[in-house]
Amino acid sequence: MSGQHTLPDLPYAYDALEPFISRQIMELHHKKHHQTYVNALNAAEQAYAKASTPKERIALQSALKFNGGGHINHSLFWKNLAPAKSENKGNGGSLHEGPLKKAIVEAFGTFDNLKKEFNTTTAGIQGSGWGWLGVNPQSKRLEIATTSNQDPLLTLTPVIGVDVWEHAFYLQYLNVKVDYLNAIWNVINFEEAEKRYLDAVGGAKL
Amino acid sequence: MSLHHTKHHQTYVTGLNAAEEAYAKASGPKEKIKLQAALKFNGGGHINHSLFWKNLAPTSAGGGEIPSGALKEALERDFGSVDAFKNKMNTATAAIQGSGWGWLGYSPTTSKLEIVTTPNQDPLLSHVPIIGIDIWEHAFYLQYKNVKPDYLKAIWNVINFREAEARFLEAAKQSA
């Protein structure tokens, strides 16, 4: 049944990603921003179920895309973050030997090069949006992509998403987006990323 | 204000200058077209913020006060009342899905005041800008956090209606 989405719990405490992402940001981002997308998605879906004409349905498309995308993107985001290994809090930031690392090296040469390209591309978004590492469903190779606003990633299977809406970093990093993008690699959950990668290359086509 | 002006707007100025220098050196249509996004984003950012600073004013200098005159009359004619105009502008601006600007604009075709929004740093082209409100999160987040409506309510206290009226009179004259 539509209109019944709920805010997923974070897999860690609000302060777990410190010092790389502050507790204050995580609380606002999860309890306010993501919650708002969930509420508005439910409202849009309920309205859509009652809509009786194509025109009414089309009029609701932007609300469904914006809030649906917001819910999808943030749900992926929380799970591809983890408390930092460098802080002895978890496995965040640690890419072990395995199929994902191999694929990264194949596609980007080195892990550092992936970060460099990803950050440059993501910092280049002109407005609000997301940076993504994803699997191309035809070639099965890793690629970097961006989406604007809350558009979900549709051209690749998402492996890692990074939110670059200003609300994701401004309270801590102010206008210095590049510092946020450098810092976040310390809390990327490569175990979750590898799971998604293996699903994407082993599973059915998109 | 400090970050918005010395960092964000400065970055648009710097980015625009670099894009224009590259454009001057570009030798073919393809190279020029590649530079369009940088020109639009940074050019729009420079235009929009330059308009923005001027359509704000401290309350001690008349910010928030709408003088009796042509602008007030036009607002009442086109929106019913000044309050109705502010509500409509706030609703439209708050509804932007991403980054962007809310505008009170003068339509050269209808000669009416209308509310328009632009995404990202797109400049307002369809109307003459009268009042612009920046709704990029950097414009309010440190102070208002996620509560965008509070920022939109507060900003009316520092809108420079005298500058707005000057723009309106100029726009009306141009299309007369």
UniProtKB/TrEMBL annotation, chain A:
It catalyses: 2 superoxide + 2 H(+) = H2O2 + O2. Signal peptide: none annotated. GO terms for molecular function: manganese ion binding; superoxide dismutase activity. It comes from Hermanssonia centrifuga. This is Superoxide dismutase. Residues 97-196 form the Manganese/iron superoxide dismutase C-terminal domain. Belongs to the iron/manganese superoxide dismutase family. The lineage of its organism: Eukaryota, Fungi, Dikarya, Basidiomycota, Agaricomycotina. Keywords: Antioxidant, Manganese, Metal-binding, Oxidoreductase. It comes from the Eukaryota. Destroys radicals which are normally produced within the cells and which are toxic to biological systems.
Automatic annotation (TrEMBL), chain B:
Its cofactor is Mn(2+). Keywords: Antioxidant, Manganese, Metal-binding, Oxidoreductase. GO terms for molecular function: manganese ion binding; superoxide dismutase activity. Residues 67-167 form the Manganese/iron superoxide dismutase C-terminal domain. Pfam families: Sod_Fe_C (PF02777), Sod_Fe_N (PF00081). Residues 1-57 form the Manganese/iron superoxide dismutase N-terminal domain. InterPro entries: Fe/Mn_Superoxide_Dismutase, Mn/Fe_SOD, Mn/Fe_SOD_BS, Mn/Fe_SOD_C, Mn/Fe_SOD_N, Mn/Fe_SOD_N_sf, SOD_C_sf. This is Superoxide dismutase.
